[in-house]
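Tutorial, part two.
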Amino acid sequence: MHQWVRWWGLFLALIFLLAPWGVSAGEAPQLSLQQLISMALNYSPEVKASKSEVRFAEEQRAEARGYYYPQLDASIITGVAPNARRPFVAGQNIIYPDPSNKLHGVNIFGRLDLSVVQPLYTFGKIGYRERAAEKNVKVKEAGVDAKRGEVILRVAEAYYGLVLAEQGKDAVRDARTYLTDTRERITRLLVIHSPNVKESDRYRLAMYEGSVEKFAAQAEEGAKVAYLALKALIGYGPGQDFKVPAELPNPSAAPGTLDQHIRTALELRPEFTQLKEGLVARQLLVDAARADQYPSFFAAVIGALAGAPGRQTTRDPYINDFFNQAGALPMVGVKWHLDFGITKAKVKQAQAEFEQLQHNQKTALMGIPVEVAQAYGKVQENYKGAAGLEKSYVNARRWLITAFSNFDMGLGKMEDIFQAFERYGSFRGDYLMALYQYNLATTQLDKSTGAYRRTLAADAPPAKAKTK
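Running the prediction step on this input gives:
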């Protein structure tokens, strides 16, 4: 008995352990909008390309900083050199056994030239460019967020389109049920020659059925296109599937006032961040171009090492033999580049680019508030429209149910059912479209104001503490 109980308990345990796997096998997971957005942002080649621009800008900053440190130049050469013996004194004459105008055999030589230069003071040539490169990094980082905003909007469009199409298919099934019930009533009453129906009612019913089938085809194809678009955005392959929630989110009034949303846009919109940081960078480049007109002070060590086995060297401090030499010399110096108009033209070029960016900022200040106002107005419009259409849609459904009940009790006409069905289908479709437009307008408002960047910042992993 105990043995049987033990085996039965083991059997039940296996059932409970394996049941979740058996149920979920082959079942596509349901993904929310936020999950799809997160997956799309992680996969998006466009976002990754913009991140590569950030890394490029960071390396440009590292290059600018590198000019603060010493730079070493070295060159090594080898070749043939004429043989030479030391001169000697004979009486009152200096005798050169191997004069330079005659060749007395050749041999090889080797020479190393080395210079190390450390900038001391450059009037800002390095500092201005290093700070401009730092601002350029921030410009590119804001560009990543701008690209993320575009991806978020595309995901929302496909997601809400897919949910709308799925709800449209539910509406088609609902309409088919009503039409089937109506056809059964018409057929039954025509058989008994009831005065409440006419033969033309069949044709009118067929007309509605044709319209429903057209809407069904549109919903089916719309769902396929939106689904494939979402799969492409999140990087899903042919064998990977998912589901979305069955209904569009209910609308709510846009929080805050229009002025608050415009202020949010001026604070968070990545384009404004790019313009603000870009203006500072351009001004720094103007300052760097002006600094190029001034000299640069430096310290240096210059050395050489050369040897030729076929040449006898001399230690005369006034004679410098290129083929036999060894030594290094520390020094300080100044380098000053002067030209007739080139540097001045570069300053004016940088100034023109700075002024162009200033005008772009003014254009953005004019255009973006209008864009925010349009998006905010669409949210409010579709919120109020969805609320009104929901009331119309619910009451049209009640009207349809009442028309069926009255007809069954002999108090109504088939015309009442047709009118109620037509109004019910029209208001339900308009209500679903208003829900879709409301949710899409909400996403557009977040993009227009840059408010989505707050969500991105909240979802970002915490920065690792730097160890000293």
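Residues 125-191 form the longest helix (67 residues). In part three we will examine how such features are distributed along the chain.
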